[in-house]
Amino acid sequence: MTNPVLVEVLRGEHVESFHRGAWAVVDAAGAVVASGGDIERPIFPRSAVKVLQALPLVACGAADHFGLDDAALALACASHGGEPEHVAVAAQVLAQLGLDERALECGAHWPGFEPAKLALARTGEEPHPLHNNCSGKHAGFACLGCWLAKGQGQEFRGFLSGYVQPDHPVMQTVSQALEAATGFALRDAPMGIDGCSIPTFGIPLRHLALGFARVASGVGLSADHARAAQRLRQAVARQPFMVAGTGRFDTRVMQHFGERVFCKVGAEGVYCAAFPEPGLGVALKMDDGNNARAAEVAMAALIARWVQRDDDDADVLAPLLNPVLSNWRGLRVGALAPYAHFLASASSSK
């Protein structure tokens, strides 16, 4: 199956290039409300499913026991830019466990937010794991691991060693939550290693959208996971800066929409979202892996279609739906736009 065009790139008023992809809007009963392209092909959701991976952190009582606040829970769902506030919250979570960044097995990279990267470089220091965009998720894994170790009467640091391995109790618990939410048997799924070293599973878009419909509504989740989903959505709505950072799409959208939208980007052109008011979940994948341009425009189009909005909402979405492209002199040279057929398909029920 050739996936449809979702986003066009305009040079002036002419189409210069385009991005194909697939997408699904699903309700909590598993019914496909609308879709386009191949939604049954397993794709690696990467960081888009961090909220699903954080469900056991809250559901088992670890977050409450170790005193994780809204900022820490939002960071557990984040792909942050390594800004000082992000680094500080991740460090604080570890300190509450009696640990430091040496406990994290996500690896180190320079902050994704350019001013933070330049500021760190000026100090002469090297980046460490707290700067990793996944450090909040991994701090959450450490918290979950400490809870599991406590239950077994084991020392925290020793128990945590190797927590990124598929057979470690932390990853087993996280994978079980992912499977339960999406309704997709991970034993049948392709498996790879994510950028932050944890397992990543190939899951069809239809099932990913189902998982997010369940996060949106609580329907189809266990009682503990339903409460956890609601708490995580509330934490992100209260602390949207933590889930991405300055100028980023996810932060901008959730700063405005609050609990009406939970959206999360993943690597290689993946986006997932939960829309609590209509009880829907959304998942999309750009064929060419384009994150910064095409995936955001496609997600903005789906938000515009499926989330009830007023004039203020439309004003916030407008620059995300049709971002302007400028050259090095600041001259407008083009724009991105949702493809007309995609907009029509997104507005039709299946």
UniProtKB/TrEMBL annotation:
- An example of a Pfam family matching this protein is Asparaginase_II
Superkingdom, taxonomy of origin = Bacteria
Q: What is this protein called?
A: Asparaginase
Instruction: Please give the organism.
Output: Ideonella paludis
